[in-house]
Amino acid sequence: LSYSKQIIDIMRYSIFTGGKRLRPVLLISAHHMVGGDIDESLPLACAIEMIHTYSLVHDDLPAMDDDDYRRGKPTTHIKFGEDMAILAGDALLNMAYEIMIENACEHSSNIHNHMRAINIIAKSSGVKGMISGQVADVAHQDESIQAEAVEFIHNYKTGALINASVLSGILLEDVDDSLIEAIDIYGKNIGLAFQITDDILDITGSFEDLGKRIG
Q: What are the tens digits of pLDDT across the range 20-48?
């Protein structure tokens, strides 16, 4: 049990270092828009932030972006070591699904919609989403890149999970296909705009503004 406490402390450090909480806010807002109860969507919102955080912990590792700071604080691997950072990321991802599945079971009368929402989050954070975007990003690290590849990276590495936030929020309720299509367009554009802005700030910003290395 002492080992469990050790990894939980590292997970807490990783997830509570700050951040905009954009994805959980979008998920709760989308659910509220279609008449949902925040008590039902809050666990999914927490879970999607945990998935996002795990991706940042792994992204900061020396084998990836090799960042020493995030949000003005030492990255997880700098503070606790690479081995513990990998394990903390793994633990955050797994706990996210524990939380979502337990929440679905607690709302058994609406379990079909919960499975739809969890499925969207799973696909968007896996090989059909964020992971593919990260693979493309790594593949183009040391070479010039075409606009199509940049758009793919933006849409998958960052945009997929942002889009999943709004889609999973509305899928918790019975909604028309036309609304799902409209929210899908909205989510994809928000994700793309977010990453474009982040790229611009990576050139025009400073460590003091962003809390991480720029360039």
A: 999 999 999 999 999 999 999 999 999 99
Could you tell me if 145 and 185 are in contact, meaning their C-beta atoms sit under 8 angstroms apart?
Answer: no
pTM of this structure:
0.93
Q: What are phi and psi of 206, to 5 degrees?
A: -145, 165
Asked if 211 and 71 count as a contact pair (C-beta separation under 8 A), the reply is yes
Give the Cα separation of 119 and 131 in Å (integer).
15
SS3 track for the chain: CHHHHHHHHHHHHHHCCCCCCHHHHHHHHHHHHCCCCHHHHHHHHHHHHHHHHHHHHHHCCCCCCCCCEECCEECHHHHHCHHHHHHHHHHHHHHHHHHHHHHHHHCHHHHHHHHHHHHHHHHHHCCCCHHHHHHHHHHCCCCCCCHHHHHHHHHHHHHHHHHHHHHHHHHCCCCCHHHHHHHHHHHHHHHHHHHHHHHHHHHHCCHHHHCCCCC
Mean residue pLDDT across the chain: 94
| Spatial separation of the C-alpha atoms in residues 72 and 82, rounded to whole Å | 19
In whole angstroms, how far apart are CA 51 and each of 23, 108, 137? Answer: 10, 24, 19
pLDDT digits over 42-86, tens only? 999 999 999 999 999 999 999 998 999 998 899 999 999 999 999
